[in-house]
Design a protein that fits this description.
alpha/beta; OB fold (Dihydrolipoamide Acetyltransferase, E2P); five-stranded mixed barrel; 5 helices
Length: 153
């Protein structure tokens, strides 16, 4: 019985090692797929949200920081319903800082960026005063690809 168990453990361990050795990181396919997306202008996204709803997109937009969070907006397509809550994390802020040649990202720079991520139309839940809880559109950043410009250069 012990011998059988030992053989089984070795067989399972071998299978796991083989599976791990032959696998590729799950984000490799995602990264390549995102790089193949066409870049769209923010106003196209904001003016035609139904066209991009629940899709991964690459967008060229200005990233604004307000007291309660990040958002995309543009003078060429004004309106509360066209402002998009942007969900990004510390890694995204680090990437922004690096692209801008800064040691640390300062949210008041308002950079024009190219980013890929998931775009969704939502019903604001108004549970808090965050931008994300009060927006009709959300963009969850997968990757900040580049910073095109920022006013405080």
């Amino acid at each position: 019985m012990f011998k059988f168990g030992g053989v089984l453990v070795i067989a399972l361990a071998s299978g796991i090692l083989l599976a791990c050795g032959n696998s590729t990181p799950s984000n490799v396919g995602t990264s390549q797929r995102l790089q193949e997306l066409p870049t769209i202008d923010y106003c196209d996204l904001a003016n035609h949200p139904e066209k991009y709803d629940d899709q991964e997109v690459r967008v060229n937009a200005t990233l604004y920081f307000m007291m309660h969070g990040y958002k995309f907006m543009d003078k060429a397509c004004l309106g509360d319903e066209k402002e998009t809550a942007v969900i990004l994390d510390g890694d995204d802020e680090d990437r922004l800082a690096k692209e801008m040649g800064l040691e640390e990202y300062h949210p008041w720079n308002f950079p024009k960026i190219v980013a890929t991520g998931k775009f969704k139309r939502v019903v604001p839940n108004r549970k808090s005063d965050t931008v994300a809880d009060n927006s009709f559109l959300t963009f969850e950043v997968e990757t900040v690809e580049s910073v095109i410009s920022f006013p405080n250069q």
